[in-house]
Amino acid sequence: MLNNKKLKNNNIVIMNFTGVYENQEFYQDLGAVWLELGDIQGTNCYCDEEAEAAIKERISLMEPSGIHFLDSGNYHYVSKIWLDKIEEEFELLVFDHHTDMQMPMFGNILSCGGWIQAALDTNTRLKRVYLAGPPSMEAEADRERVVGINEEELKTPGCISRHLKNSGLPLYISLDKDILTRSCAITNWDQGEAQLEDVLACIKEAASCRSIIGVDVCGENPDDQEQEGNRASQTNQNTNRKIICKLLEICDVLCP
């Protein structure tokens, strides 16, 4: 178990599936690693076995610690692939407007809508999931291992530490920007009404009481040129910059 209650390292990985990050600059002065994944077939929303193997190969020399940007919410299942690289017992804190616990309609294929359930079913080191943001939880959710946190609770200081108090296990944090109001992020999914400052305060609070293994962020909008012009790209870039600066602050590193 990690002793210091900080992010283990501040390595930044940009996982480019759709090209959306080519129109953003939030990472360019931070020494980020650019990981090109757009050539892998079978990755949009669902990830078939060949695609999963290819992604695992691309990140095979990388540690799960650090900060990973995953592209749009269609690729949120990549969180599970990072989780599979963690070699100690841990818990997962997810900020998301959706539960991501829906099993796919066909087979056991990994999907953006079911990756949390898949992780619970297959990763024996994952002991509990704290799921913040969904307006409702599936009736079949594993109540022993899944703790729901209402979006409204996130406005209350101390809400995260109250939920995290019963275990000293390190955390991995996953943030889907679709939890945010559209003034903070414009995604290609339906969204919640959370404010960015509240979510960032919750992440800082989590880091004050637990060691953080790593963090990933998704919720870009690859369709923004067709639907929103440059508004989505600019809004998401500004929010990504605020997110990454807060995470670096946790590492005691100041943004330039």
Automatic annotation (TrEMBL):
Xref: SUPFAM superfamilies: Arginase/deacetylase (SSF52768)
Domain of life: Bacteria
Pfam family, one: Arginase
InterPro entries on file: Ureohydrolase, Ureohydrolase_dom_sf
GO molecular function terms noted in the UniProt entry: agmatinase activity; metal ion binding
GO terms classed as biological process: putrescine biosynthetic process from arginine, via agmatine
Protein's name in the database: Arginase family protein
